[in-house]
Amino acid sequence: MSDFHPNAKGGFIENTLEGLHFALSRALYAESSASRAGVMQRLDPRVKVAGVFAMVITVALVTKLWLIAAVLILAVGMAVVSAIPIGVLASRTWLGAFVFSGMIALPALFLTPGTPLYGLPITVQGVRTASFLVMRAETAATLMLVLAYTTPWTHILKALRIFRVPVVFVVILGMTCRYILLMLETAHEMFESRKSRTVNRMTPAENRRLAIASSGVLLHKTLHMSNEVYMAMQARGFRGEVYILDDFEMQARDWFALGAFASVAAVSILLGR
Amino acid sequence: MLFQVEHLTYRYEGVTAVDDLTLSIPEGSRVALLGANGSGKSTLLRLFDGLIFGQTGSILFRGDDVSEEHMLDDGFALPFRRTVGMVFQNPDVQLFNPTVFDEVAFGPLQLRWPKDQIRERVAEILDRLRIGHLKNRIPQRLSGGEKKRVALASVLVLDPAVLLLDEPTAALDPRSQSEVIDLMVEWGGGSKSVITATHDLGDLEDIADRCYVLDSGKLVAEGSPSEILANTDLLRRTNLIHAHRHRHGGEVHTHPHVHGSER
Q1: Contact A237/B86, CB-based, under 8 Å?
Q2: What does the DSSP 8-state code read for residue B167?
Q3: Most B CBs within 10 Å: which of A26, A33, A243, as the mutation test of the B interface?
Q4: DSSP reduced 3-state for B115
Q5: Could you say which of A75, A113, A122, B181 would form a disulfide bridge with A142 (CB–CB 3.0 to 4.6 Å)?
Q6: Is residue B109 part of a domain?
Q7: Are A28 and B111 inside 8 Å of each other by CB?
Q8: Residue B172 structural domain
C-alpha cells in the first residue's frame, strides 16, 4: 500500500472534490458578477454582444501588435470599471489562454524561417508570429470574459437571437451551460459519496481505476440528467426560442457605448491594415 | 374523457416500461398511479405529458392524439402545455434559471403571457408557497424542501387544469411532505385533475379518488383508494407493502408495512 490517503489533504478524492467545488463556484460567480453595479453591467446586452464581437473581429484582422495590445488594455479597463478584479482576469483567462495558445504557438518559434534571434535556435519572425497568436488569444478571451461576467447568460442568448443567430445554435449554447453545471454537481455528489465510503488508503492504481470508472458513470448520469432537464423545459412550454422577463431598451449611454465600440473597431482596422 | 390510453407500449434500452396499457382518466378526477420502483408509473406520466411517445398504441387528450407530430405543432402544443403541468420527481432537473423568480417566470414566458401579468402572478405564487423571501436566490443552492417548493411553484404558476405529479413527497422531511400534500388537496378547490405517481400509500385517500396499480408496465388493478388499500395480497404482490418485523417489549411482532405510513 502506498502513502495515499483519500481523506488526507492532497488525496485523490479530496483534490477532485476541491477542484469540483472550485469549478462550481466559478460557474456560479459569473451570475453574481453580472448583477453587480458596474459600467458594463448597465449597458444593453445587445450593445455588449455587438461591441465585444466587433472588438474580437478587429483583433483578428489587425496586423500590428501594438494595436492588439491597445485593445487588450481597453478590455482590462472595461473589466476594472465593471467590478471584475484583475486577479480574476489573470487566473481565469490569461493563464489558461497563455498555456493553450502558447502550446500551439511554440513550434512557430523554431519552424518559422527568418533571422535568428541573438544566436538562439528561434527566429525574429517566429517570435513575431507566436506573439500575434498569444496576444490575439489573450485579448479575445479577456473580451469574452468581460461579456460573460457582466451579462446574465439568458440575456446573451436573447441578444444572439435578436442578431438572428439560429435557434439550434442558441439552444445548444444554453443547454451546454446547464449541462456543465449539472455535470459538476453530479460529479461533486459522486465523489462526496465515494469519500464517505472510503476508509482505507488508496494506491495510485486504485486512484486511476476510480478516475476511469467515475468518468464513465458521470457521463452516463449527466446524459440522463440533461435529458431530464430538457424534458422539464419542454413540459413548461420551451420550444427553442429564448424569452426573458426584462425588456431591452436602448438609452443614451447605450448609443454612446455602441458608437465607442464602432469607432474603436473602425480606427483599429484602418490603422492596423 | 381527459386521457384515453389504448394498448400503449413504450420500450427503451430493451426494457418494456409500459406494456400494452389501456385505461381512461375522466375530467376533474384525482388519480393515483401506484407501483413499486420500475413499475412504469413515471414513464406513463411522461407519456401523458407528451415528452416521450409510445412505439405502439395511442394516448388521446380530450380526444386529440398526443403524438410526436402533434406536439411539433404550436397550435396544439402551446394550449396543451398551458393546460397540463408536470412536476418531476427530482426538483434539480426543473431548476435551471439564475434565480428563483426567473425559474418560476420561465413557464409563463414560454407561453408568451404579458410581462406585467407574469410579474404579478409569479409574486403571488411565491407568496402562496411561502418562498417569496427566496426570489433572488440561486435555485441550485436551496435545501431539498425549498427546491421542491420552487419546482411546484414553477408549474402551479401556470394554473394548469391538469397536474401530473411524480413522487411529489419523495425525499422530503415530514413537515414538507405534509405541506405538499395539503397544497395538493387544497389546490384548485377540487376543480382540477391531478394525476399522482407514487408508492406512498400513507396519504392515498387524501390525494386520490381513483387508483391504478402498475406492475412491470402492466395495469394489474384499479379501484377506489379504500378498495386498493384493503387488498393486501395485491399490495404485497406489487411490492407496495412488505412484512415488517419489529419488537414490542420482549415479543417479536410482524405486520404489513405501508410505505409512507411512518408519517
Answers
A1: no
A2: S
A3: A243
A4: helix
A5: A75
A6: yes
A7: no
A8: 3-258
Average of per-residue pLDDT across B48-62? 94
Write the pLDDT tens digit of every residue in B69-95.
999 988 999 899 999 999 999 888 888
Q: What is the CATH number of the domain that holds B36?
A: 3.40.50.300
Check if B118 contacts A (Cβ < 8 Å): yes
- CA contacts within 13 A on the Cβ side of A32: 10
- Which residue ranges of chain A lie beneath pLDDT 70? 1-13, 24, 27-28, 199-200
Which of A153, A228, A239 shows the shortest C-beta gap to B88? A228
> Percentage of chain B surpassing pLDDT 90?
47
Reference B85, options B135, B148, B154, B150; nearest CA is: B154
A189-217: per-residue pLDDT in tens?
Answer: 787 787 777 766 777 787 788 778 888 88
Q: Is residue B219 domain-resident? A: yes
Q: What is the pLDDT of residues B153-202, one digit of tens each?
A: 999 999 999 999 998 887 677 877 887 788 777 776 667 899 999 888 87
Establish if B263 belongs to a structural domain. no
How many A/B residue pairs have CB atoms within 8 Å?
A: 77
Closest Cα to residue A231, out of B144, B172, B157, B87?
Answer: B87
Question: Torsion over CA of A115, A117, A121 and A126, rounded to 10 degrees?
Answer: -70
Task: Find chain B residues with C-beta within 8 A of A228's C-beta.
Answer: 88, 90, 93
Looking at residue B252, its pLDDT comes to 63
Please indicate, yes or no, whether the overall pTM of this predicted structure exceeds 0.90: no
Number of domains in chain B: 1
What is the three-state SS of chain B? CCEEEEEEEEEECCEEEEEEEEEEECCCCEEEEECCCCCCHHHHHHHHCCCCCCCEEEEEECCEECCHHHHCCHHHHHHHHHHEEEECCCHHHHCCCCCHHHHHHHHHHHCCCCHHHHHHHHHHHHHHCCCHHHCCCCHHHCCHHHHHHHHHHHHHCCCCCEEEEECCCCCCCHHHHHHHHHHHHHHHHHCCEEEEEECCCCCHHHHCCEEEEEECCEEEEEECHHHHHHCHHHHHHCCCEEEEEEEECCEEEEEEEECCCCC
Residue B190 counted as domain residue: yes
